[in-house]
Amino acid sequence: QKEVEQNSGPLSVPEGAIASLNCTYSDRGSQSFFWYRQYSGKSPELIMSIYSNGDKEDGRFTAQLNKASQYVSLLIRDSQPSDSATYLCAVGGDDKIIFGKGTRLHILP
Amino acid sequence: EAGVTQSPTHLIKTRGQQVTLRCSPISGHTSVYWYQQALGLGLQFLLWYDEGEERNRGNFPPRFSGRQFPNYSSELNVNALELEDSALYLCASSFGQPQHFGDGTRLSIL
């Protein structure tokens, strides 16, 4: 059974600080990794994709991938109240993408 | 470029009725995925269609079914509706990966 694990939270972070979201996965053959943001009552929105080991930066977001440890993370710098949402980690292989249950992030003003 | 579109946006049904939800993928995308998200819960994978064929199915009863048309649009059908079917139904499309989601159909069962 392929699994993607995330801490459900809520993770509370002061405004302006760095939020760190973590995800582990079970399938060593996984090839693609995604982070989605989902506001309450809305659909998930793709914010980052990463395919190789290391860091990938896009604005205030940095995705980090460590395939040896089967670990992917998302860092949000200079956290804003608008970053308060549920963040879904998704891991893809040859056949399908598996979503984690998400981490609720709350940015404290 | 138009995103994934779903219709209707909201739907209210009673137990035992049948419902059809519709999804139009992003132009050029050949795969369509359906997910159920009950209030406060994670995404539950329902169905994956690619090139008109059902590629994978989640752990849902047979009363959940669907199809994909030659233009890659898709329908999700749910028969004999039950109260626990109340949820946000999300469609996503892709050409390979990643998936891009529509705004969803919120289904309420009375």
Low-confidence stretches of chain B: none
Number of helical segments with 4 or more residues of chain A: 0
Count of strand segments of chain B: 11
Helix content of chain B: under 10%
Give the structural class of chain B.
mainly beta
Outline type of chain B: globular
CA-atom Rg of chain B in angstroms: 13 Å
The number of helices of chain B is 0
Q: Which strand-content bin applies to the residues of chain A?
A: over 45%
**Biggest sheet record of chain A:** 6 strands, mixed
Arithmetic mean pLDDT of chain B: 95
Q: Which chains have the largest interface?
A: A-B, 21 and 17 residues
The N- to C-terminal Cα distance of chain B equals 37 Å
N-to-C order of helices and strands of chain B: EEEEEEEEEEE
Fraction in beta strands of chain B: over 45%
Based on CA atoms alone, the radius of gyration of chain A comes out at 13 Å
Oligomer: heterodimer
Strand tally of chain A is 11
Unreliable stretches covering 5 or more consecutive residues of chain A = none
Structural class of chain A: mainly beta
The largest sheet of chain B, given as strand count, sense and whether it forms a barrel, is: 7 strands, mixed
Keywords:
heterodimer, A: 109 residues, mainly beta, 6-stranded mixed sheet, 5-stranded antiparallel sheet, B: 110 residues, 7-stranded mixed sheet, 4-stranded antiparallel sheet, 11 strands, 0% helix, globular
